[in-house]
Design a protein that fits this description.
single chain; 23% strand; alpha/beta; seven-stranded mixed beta sheet
């Protein structure tokens, strides 16, 4: 498989409800891996791909999904290329690992959340839930979100820190507004934290995914 990735696999044979968890700018495949055992009692298969773009951040480099342009307009061509690469990885992973294809969750932190939004808005019928943490909804996606019927059936959780100094709270609230305008059923949670995933956020994420995906039956 092309992308480096970390994986947490529950006990048993599967197939398992599965989270594809995308890290933020300058981080790695292991950044979100540690919360896997705490989600719905460890019942989810959690696959954490690593962005292909190397980021110089000091003695140890991190990774990103596409080159950032702080304060500038997003380069849609670079984003599209990154989305296509991630989508191909997900398709490969579904063939290699015991993934329950009817219970696939897209989750991401910061830039990884933007990747989750990109995938979910373009192909909402492929996923069982969407989670964005400390992130912002790319405005250009609104015109690409054409399958409103499927978006309306996609449980969506948005989590954000009130003291986030990387992506300010007003951007998160604007993201929620845009998602709801597209028809997404959004649960929005604010926390007394900065640009990070806090313990209360993990607790709420676990409860959300247990109810909406792990314990949910289409029948």
């Amino acid at each position: 498989m092309k992308l480096v990735h970390a994986i947490y696999e529950p006990a048993g044979d599967g197939p398992f409800p599965t989270i594809f968890a995308m890290h933020g700018w300058g981080l790695s495949a292991f950044d979100l891996h540690g919360i896997a055992p705490f989600i719905a009692g460890g019942r989810f298969l959690v696959i954490c791909p690593q962005g292909p773009h190397e980021v110089e951040i000091g003695a140890i480099n991190g990774y990103g999904w596409y080159e950032m342009n702080p304060g500038g307009k997003p380069n849609e061509e670079k984003i599209d290329a990154a989305v296509d690469e991630l989508r191909a990885f997900i398709n490969e992973a579904c063939g290699r690992y015991p993934v329950d294809r009817s219970k696939i969750v897209l989750a991401g932190f910061s830039q990884g959340g933007m990747m989750a939004y990109n995938l979910a808005m373009r192909w909402p019928d492929k996923f069982a839930a969407l989670v964005g943490i400390g992130t912002a909804f790319p405005e250009f996606l609104a015109e690409r979100a054409t399958n409103r019927e499927a978006i309306a059936k996609l449980p969506t959780l948005v989590q954000h820190g009130r003291a986030d100094d990387a992506i300010a709270m007003p951007r998160a609230r604007k993201s929620v507004e845009m998602l709801r305008e597209l028809g997404a059923p959004v649960t929005f949670c604010e926390y007394d934290c900065r640009h990070e995933i806090c313990a209360d956020g993990v607790r709420d994420l676990s409860a959300f995914l247990a109810e909406k995906v792990a314990d949910h039956s289409a029948t």
